[in-house]
Amino acid sequence: MDYVNRVSPESGAVYFKLGKITNTGKKRKSNEDCISTCSFTISEKDALVDICLFTVCDGMGGARAGSKASRLAVRAINGWIINEILRSNLAQFEKIIDAALKGSIKQAHTFISKESERNEDSRGMGTTAVIALTKSNAAYIYHIGDSRCYHLKKNNLKQVTEDHSLFNVLNKKGSLSSKEKKNFVNRNVITHAIGRNINLGNKNDSVKKIPLENGDSLLLCSDGLTLHLQDNEIKQIMKDSSHPEQACRGLMHLALERGGEDNISIVILKCLIG
């Protein structure tokens, strides 16, 4: 499926080619990930503009609880963001987006926390989330946990998000030797998650705006992908693929071939301007 952002004729149309895929993996009995891609249209200066919204959530708390958490989060995130944009003054779009993305995480946290308190089977459930929202050729990225966003520009792949994980905390402090980094056994331990500890408001808690150029791509994924693939491998498969769907299949194939230890979810969008 391809989405298009309709913008004013003088600036040209911005198209997004889209690929998405999710898989239980080879070791888990159920898929606790949830992915969502949607778009809606707003009117701005007598022109129609499509807003595209992409979300990947990686649930935790056991098969049933993790699956419930990721799906509740996607529903809350999408509903909150769409409602906030549609009811707001679009002349202040940058401020709206910042508040909408952060507010969506808080809303999802409230929903999941209440469900966890209400239902004994859901106690302790939580989820990560990584969100990309596009308007014209600008992308706005926000996340919590260790689900990631990457930006591919020409020959450069950059990780946009910073993992909220125990490994990353220790690594940034310089507490791990090269051997400890390679053999670190608690890579799946995260420090922030919806339904557990969202810890919003710290200095690194910011919505990142990325101007997209023709041919740029964004990749959203759960940690089931990055558990098995290095960044340079992700970059090469994305570069060698003619369409995001092909890239998704190639990345998934390699992750499964290397063990598929966790659920794997991937969303890729490629920007085309003209």
Features:
274 residues; alpha+beta; Phosphatase 2c, domain 1; six-stranded antiparallel β-sheet; 7 helices
Strand line-up in the sheet with most strands: 1-2-12-11-8-9
Overall structural class, as computed from helix and strand content, comes to: alpha+beta
Question: What is the beta-strand fraction?
Answer: 25-35%
Largest sheet, in brief, is: 6 strands, antiparallel
Q: Indicate the multimeric state.
A: single chain
> So what's the overall shape?
globular
CATH architecture: 4-Layer Sandwich
Radius of gyration: 18 Å
Question: What can you tell me about this protein's structure?
Answer:
By secondary structure, the protein is an alpha+beta fold. Helix 1 packs antiparallel against helix 2 and helix 6 packs across helix 7. The strands form 2 sheets. A 6-stranded antiparallel beta sheet has the order 1-2-12-11-8-9. It is built from 7 helices and 12 strands. The protein has a single domain, classed as 4-Layer Sandwich (Phosphatase 2c, domain 1), CATH 3.60.40. A hairpin with a 2-residue loop joins strand 8 (148-153) and strand 9 (156-159). It has helices at 63-86, 93-118, 166-172, 178-183, 223-226, 231-240, 244-257; strands at residues 2-5, 14-23, 33-44, 47-60, 126-127, 129-135, 138-144, 148-153, 156-159, 208-211, 217-221, 264-273. The chain is globular.
